[in-house]
Predict the structure.
Amino acid sequence: MKRPARILVVNDDGINAPGLDALAAVAAEIGDEVWVVAPETDQSGVSHSVSLNDPLRLRRIGERRFAVHGTPTDCVIMGARHLMKEVPPDLVLSGFNGGQNAAEDVVYSGTVAGAVEGAVLGIPAIALSQSIRRETPPGTMFACAAERGAEVIWKILEAGIGRGVLVNVNFPACAPGEVEGIAVTRQGRRPQDFVGIEQRHDGRNRPYYWVTYGPRYAEAEEGTDLWALQRRQISITPLRVDLTDEARLASLADALASKVG
Ligand code: MN
């Protein structure tokens, strides 16, 4: 496997997030040239939004470091199709997200979406997230991802990432020395009562609302990303841009044909 020449690093936590610099440092171990293009503000949970109704403001911070007033998807397009247009990136890395992106997190995640956009543009792409426990001291939050990141990325590149595929990596919430190996997993499932709305009241006693997430811990199915993280394993899940449910395709076509026919 050839050393990547140009790596595009994006995230969804924003240009000032500590996980971004941790990933940029790992990218510098892997590739020759690292370009950082990240959102001005925290874009966690925006999924694959693209800014179609507002202009994108681009702020140059360093020679190869930029902030975009937009989403992670905007950042990947700005990097690959504008800033690095002459010689496009041969790898997109999205992260390190502060917090895991496992199970249904994947469909909300701006971090995963950054990698999806890489795959859409035909560039090998990896999303990387660090699971965090509430009691983890802020200074050591990304220790696991920072120490094991280069090795994991390199292993994925050597195995090869197919076209239309991106790889979702989650690092467990533990010290680097406590990691129990690497597991290739499938996307897990959370309990359905996980998501809720919390009502609060403002200074004039009018209600307002926050989307809330229930306890992070749930019994995980074997072989899933959640299961690996609970066992302190680094979880690696291949995801597809094509969301077609192949198994349902034929039976749905049959069912509708008989109705129409
Ligand atoms: Mn985030």
Observations:
- Residues 12-13, 44, 97, 110-111 surround manganese (II) ion (CB under 6 Å).
- The first strand starts at residue 6 and ends at 10.
- The radius of gyration is 19 Å.
